[in-house]
Amino acid sequence: MKRIWLLFSQAVTVFVAAYFVVATLQPDWLGRGTTRSGAGIALLEAPATPQGQPVAGSFSAAARKAAPAVVSINTSKAVRHPRSNDPWFQFFFGDQGAQAQAGLGSGVIVSPDGYILTNNHVVEGADEIEVTLTDSRRARASVIGTDPDTDLAILKIELDKLPVIVLGNSDGLAVGDQVLAIGNPFGVGQTVTSGIVSALGRTQLGINTFENFIQTDAAINPGNSGGALVDVNGNLMGINTAIYSRSGGSMGIGFAIPVSTARLVLDGIVKDGQVTRGWIGVEPNELSPELAETFGVKATEGVIITGVLQDGPAAQAGMRPGDVIVKVEGKNVGNVSELLTAVAGLKPGTAAPFNVQRADKMVELNITPGVRPKPKRRQ
Fold first, then answer.
1. Which of 62, 333, 345 is nearest to 210 (CA)?
2. What is the pTM of this model?
3. Residue 109 has pLDDT above 80, yes or no
4. Cβ count near 5 (within 10 Å)
5. What CATH number has the domain bearing residue 177?
6. Per DSSP, what are the bridge partners of residue 118?
7. Residue 81 annotated as catalytic
């Protein structure tokens, strides 16, 4: 028995030694993916991945699913010199005429009917809008409607067999979820970048009137505006809108409008031609110790009302300057942004309860909101 075991051990030792020598000097003899280049150099190649099968850890499936529905948007508008009508300016410089100004952005096809979601600032003031698909088809787009309060716009193109993105559930996102940003940064062509959800519910950024941004570190650059933020399944989570940057390029802080907000804007504009929001006619401010002392209120949280429009919905319900709104329809409001969002979500003409602290006591007011006035067009 010992003799047999000794022979087996020696055979294994010789085999391992031979394998080591061959693997070192002639690896191509082992057939481990070694090929010869055109110059006869032995190269080791990874096994080929079957067609259509993603590599482990790859986001290629999500990109293939979402990318065809992300389009490039090119805009142009005629811009005249601000002093072009001045006779002295014309005398010295002549008639300058209108200069063409081009813009670049991205958009997302959300319906087979040709509806496209993008940012309002991408198409604002444009005389012509051209949409380019990933299959190189081009089409003129018409503006169905815009919503400057959320910086969203709805475009429409007339083409057949359009790729459409799948709308996801942005309310189900969590910090740390992996996401992809798809768009056309700097006009280099469609680009996919990856990152995670860095934060949710970002407000008070001074970008839009109504803010509830998804923050991500997926690279977003100029030209990405209006593009798609998708999850690892390729479903739309948000519309890329803005970045925080000191250089003009991505610094790892980008913001996207949740698809839940975009969907409300889409439905409102397509159905009614505008987004209808609630309005109560007050001037809200962040609650500070100084304002609390000025109005003699003992509240420590909520939004203080420093002005009430005469005969407005809030005034008719009995609201006064110095009242602190603590809750709207049972939901806490901790800052002005949250109050604006809560009031905007109310149905005009339907009374809603407001919990208000007045001096040192709590009061409940039933306010019937009106329709929020349209914002003035930015110059």
1. 345
2. 0.72
3. yes
4. 9
5. 2.40.10.10
6. 153
7. no
291: Cα within 13 Å, side-chain hemisphere: 18
Rounded Cα–Cα distance for residues 235 and 62 (Å)? 8
Mean pLDDT of all residues belonging to the chain: 83
Tokens of 81: 């010199």
Residue 240 buriedness (CB in 10 A; 0-12 / 13-18 / 19+)? buried
Contact 114, 162 (CB under 8 A): yes
Q: Which position has the higher pLDDT, 95 or 311?
A: 311
Q: Please report whether residue 101 resides in a domain.
A: no
Residues forming beta bridges with residue 356, ordered by sequence position = 325, 363
Q: What is the residue whose two structure tokens read 């990109």?
A: 63
Q: Using CA atoms, how far apart are residues 355 and 348, in angstroms rounded to an integer?
A: 19
Catalytic residue among 106, 170, 225, 337: 225
* Residue indicated by tokens 């940003």: 181
3-state secondary structure of 183: strand
Distance from C-alpha of 277 to C-alpha of 322, rounded to nearest angstrom: 25
From 72, 106, 149, 151, active-site residue: 151
Asked about 151 being catalytic, the answer comes back as yes
Q: Which residue has the higher pLDDT, 374 or 163?
A: 163
Which listed residue (72, 121, 231, 337) is catalytic? 121
Q: By the 8 A CB rule, do 324 and 297 touch? A: yes
Q: Which residue has the tokens 């969002």?
A: 341
Parallel, antiparallel, or unpaired for β 34-36 and 235-243?
unpaired
pLDDT one-digit tens code per residue, 301-341: 899 999 999 989 999 999 999 999 999 998 888 888 888 88
Considering 272, 287, 306, which residue would you say is the last residue of a domain? 272
Known catalytic membership, residue 142:
no
Q: What angle do CA 17, 20, 26 make, to 5 degrees?
A: 130
What tokens were used for 344? 């905007």
Residue at 104 is within a domain: no
Beta bridge partners of 353: 366
Helix, strand, coil share of the chain (percent; to 5):
25, 35, 40
101's tokens: 């100004």
pLDDT band at 300 (very low <50, low <70, confident <90, very high): confident
Last residue of a domain, one of 272, 304, 332: 272
* Number of domain units in the chain: 2
d(CA 82, CA 262) in angstroms, rounded, equals: 35
Q: Which 3 state secondary structure label does DSSP give 199? A: strand
